[in-house]
TrEMBL record, chains A, B:
Signal peptide (UniProt feature, chain positions): none
Organism phylogeny: Bacteria, Pseudomonadati, Bacteroidota, Flavobacteriia, Flavobacteriales
A molecular function (GO) term: serine-type peptidase activity
Alphabetized InterPro entries for the sequence: Class_I_gatase-like, Peptidase_S51
GO process annotations (BP): proteolysis
NCBIfam families in alphabetical order: PRK05282.1 (NF003642)
Protein name in UniProt: Dipeptidase E
Keyword annotations of the record: Hydrolase, Protease, Serine protease
Family: Belongs to the peptidase S51 family.
Gene3D superfamilies: 3.40.50.880
Length: 235, 235
């Protein structure tokens, strides 16, 4: 049975890393002593070692040890053996490229579908959808495919931002970009604001956190979904 | 001799399409009766016909006829025969995919290098760099390559936005994204604010418009470049 948390962001303004999620994570990873961390998204281009070191203090607060996937010789085997898995944010193009390069995209998807507890934040959440095509990130490397884990039957836009109506900037708003996605793709897209997350328990997907989320479906007017809404109907 | 205008945006706030550039365009396209328009970037997913219709009024003001490349059976030949070429904005992934699909990426680069006057705005400017990897757009389609026209020896970030210091949003700033690009790539990136453009005459690249532009080079602190600066040293 799937057991997944998919968060818009790792960190809220003026808070520590994962601080707002720690009560959830304590429950989510209650049966894990050790978390396997996937640092492939390398925020700001930092190394896997640096990134893994950066997240350890948050998990130490809930008494979890963290091991980076780069510390294992056999990455697919590390995933199969993991008690719990966390993929952090950074650049989604880098993350997806590394998942393919290290031959773990498929085994990661299977392992999570079989019930290993998973946490994703930002880029690590993006990959939970069908494709990474609604990321906000720059294409700084060329991945072999945009296909991702497919843990939920729609796509995500983490760090969803409402249009700034006071701005004179002519670049596209987030909503405009997602509408463009729907000119070529029929997959629904959920705009997940910072502070929101999805809880996936088996086939039940529930919106969590204090905010509404914005659902974009092809050829339909976007709708705001209340927290605690069961999203399992979206496909 | 190259004769190119590379603009951050087609449109400034509260202005008509291309309005701020019309005096430049009158000179730039002075020897052209007809402009070949490349509508492949399809802003908002509009059709090639709609997009071409949308830009005609601006060019009518300087007495230019506009023909869309989709109106020709042989797209590469249309480029070779063009008096002047304009590629409009939209989604850079869609634009680059279509340039490859229609087999015109190489011939477009060669034709412009041989002197056919070219105007790019937004996505149509992005493709003037070495790669499209510093676009702001969503990867809504999967292009066969990120390599672009290479008309200038660096990359562009059109619609460059300064960090909003009042924002509590935790998504990456434009500067952070470009720094991440430089964790994997050595190509310099010029952040071109709305209202700025580059004029390329042969090998001389000059910053134009009322604003400064922000230059990002790998492992260096970004610098602000004044308008009218000769940028030919950047490589």
């Amino acid at each position: 049975m799937k057991n997944i948390l998919i968060a818009s962001t790792s960190t809220l303004a003026n808070q520590n890393y994962l601080e707002y999620l720690l009560p959830e994570l304590q429950l989510h990873f209650q049966n894990c002593k050790t978390i396997l961390f996937i640092p492939y998204a390398r925020p700001g281009g930092i190394s896997h070692e640096e990134y893994t070191g950066m997240i350890r203090p948050a998990f130490a607060k809930i008494n979890k040890k963290v091991i980076g996937i780069h510390e294992f010789e056999n990455a697919p085997q590390a995933i199969k053996n993991a008690e719990g898995i966390f993929t952090g944010g950074g650049n989604t193009f880098v993350l997806v490229s590394q998942l393919y390069k290290n031959n773990v995209m498929e085994v990661l998807s299977e392992t999570i579908k079989n019930g290993t507890p998973y946490l994703g934040t930002s880029a690590g959440s993006n990959i939970c959808g069908l494709t990474m095509q609604t990321t906000n990130d720059m294409p700084i490397v060329y991945p072999p495919s945009f296909k991702t884990l497919g843990l939920i039957p729609f796509n995500l836009n983490p760090h969803y931002l409402d249009p700034d109506t006071s701005s004179s900037h002519m670049g596209e708003t987030r909503e405009t970009r997602i509408k463009e996605f729907h000119a070529y793709n029929s997959v629904p897209v959920l705009g997940l604001r910072e502070g929101s997350w999805l809880e996936v328990k088996g086939d039940v997907i529930t919106l969590k956190g204090p905010l509404t989320a914005r659902l974009f479906s092809q050829n339909q007017i976007p709708t705001e979904l209340e927290t605690e809404t069961n999203l399992s109907y979206i496909k």
